[in-house]
Amino acid sequence: MQVTDIINEATGKGRTLFTFELLPPLKGDGLAGIFRAIDPLVEFSPSYINVTFHREDFAGSGEDRHMVRRRPGTVGVSAAIRQRYGVEVVPHLICGGLSRYDIEDALIDLDFLGINNVLALRGDNLRGQERFVPHPDGHAHAEGLVGQIADMNRGIFIDGQVSPCHNSEFCIGVAGYPEKHAEAASMEEDIANLKRKVDAGASYVVTQLSFDNGRILSFIEHCRAAGIDVPIIPGLKPLSTKTQIDVLPSLFHVDIPAELATEARRCKDNDHVKELGIEWAVAQALELKKAGVPVLHFYTMGRSDNMCRIARKVF
Length: 315
Description:
The chain is of the alpha/beta class. 41% of the residues lie in helices and 17% in strands.
């Protein structure tokens, strides 16, 4: 079932859906950790589960320095989750480090597995690079990746059109940034970039994590004014450690509201920060739910204990 069909069905019933994101295990780990993270959340009936895709990185040093993918297996993890739980999955697919042929092969595998949802992202810079450098035969922006997926849905492959063709039916999601993408010169430019992704074939938007509902709702309003009429899904993450007060803004280019940051710094330990993070996330979620957002998407980082408490109060 496509994400947009799931959303439309829930919207007709006046419901706000619960979804979350997981990381594939590190190379050498099995699926036990993934299943331990999912099992406690099944009772809240997640509508779908996202599985991130991680690009290559450097390992070793000197003559032994080489490229490695530390978290491979996005396609396999997605298939395993779908088979075990019967829930829809949304694997991420990125531009970084992949050629158009790599992307096409991954899409064909997903189609064979009956997975027809994908989140199309540019991905991060390679560690040590000041700017994003695409694969020589890849895409520089997510807009191009979206276009390739949309083409494949129409039976158009890299080497031309196939006829007759078993057409894929991928529902394509893309990322939006309530606090602006770090590389965009302005919010107006960033929303224009998002509009191009939607025009290229994206069917919905999921936002970067944000702790500020004012920014999320303002972002949605600006998107609507720009003619972006697809569903927009807020992304939330519960604060859980003092370190995250400084790390999250640096990693994700988001602001932590002064009230939340001040209260978190006053906490005597991370257990108290975690409690504060749960309270903040519940308040955020309930306010957004009241505003009528179709889905609340949570960045769990594989932790489910705090998510269970949040979900129990919100859904």
